[in-house]
Design a protein that fits this description.
- The protein is mainly β.
- Helix content is 5%, strand content 48%.
- It has 2 domains: 1-63, no CATH class; 71-163, no CATH class.
- It contains 1 helix and 13 strands.
- The strands form 3 sheets. Strands 7, 8, 9, 10, 11, 12 and 13 form a 7-stranded antiparallel β-sheet that branches.
- It is globular, with a radius of gyration of 17 Å.
- It starts with a strand and ends in a 5-residue tail after the last helix.
């Protein structure tokens, strides 16, 4: 069980969590609103996180729906924007990975873009970039391995193409 208790001894979060190898809980301003949010995760074959956003009006925390999917692992806000991206190792000793570009509206994720980085498949090596619309992947760019960049660099440089 996860409990977050204020100094006045009142409980603001109670959550039953199941997982393997819990990762320490961290208070950080995930959505850049000036208030500390809660982030914690679990390792298994993949890494899963839960993020609870602080609601200043009620002084409570609310989870982002769907963020506890391994596709959203290690997610970060793109500084100065309302956009977020993930970095999720996806096999082959972390040489394959995916990254999703998304926004959060009403505590729900809306996907905008996807990068699939494939370094281990001989025929399919490369960095594949997709626009996501209504759960449909539309390939917009394929970069060879020697021209690929980090997911953070790609999303920052190309953010305007996904707005």
């Amino acid at each position: 069980m996860l409990y977050i208790i204020r100094s006045e001894n009142d409980t603001v979060v109670t959550r039953k969590e199941e997982g393997i190898s819990p990762v320490p809980l961290v208070f950080e301003d995930y959505n850049n609103d000036g208030y500390p949010d809660v982030r914690y995760g679990y390792n298994s074959n993949y890494y899963y996180e839960t993020i609870l956003l602080f609601i200043p009006d009620t002084k409570e925390f609310r989870p982002i729906e769907g963020i506890d999917n391994c596709d959203y692992a290690y997610s970060k806000n793109i500084k100065g924007t309302g956009f977020y991206y993930s970095y999720a190792p996806n096999g082959c000793g972390k040489n394959n990975w995916i990254s999703k570009l998304f926004v959060i509206k009403d505590y729900k994720i809306r996907d905008l873009g996807l990068i699939k980085y494939k370094q281990c498949e001989d025929e399919d090596k490369g960095m594949y970039v997709y626009r996501l619309t209504n759960d449909t992947e539309v390939l917009i760019e394929k970069l060879p391995i020697n021209e690929s960049v980090s997911c953070e660099d790609y999303w920052i440089k190309n953010l305007k193409n996904f707005e």
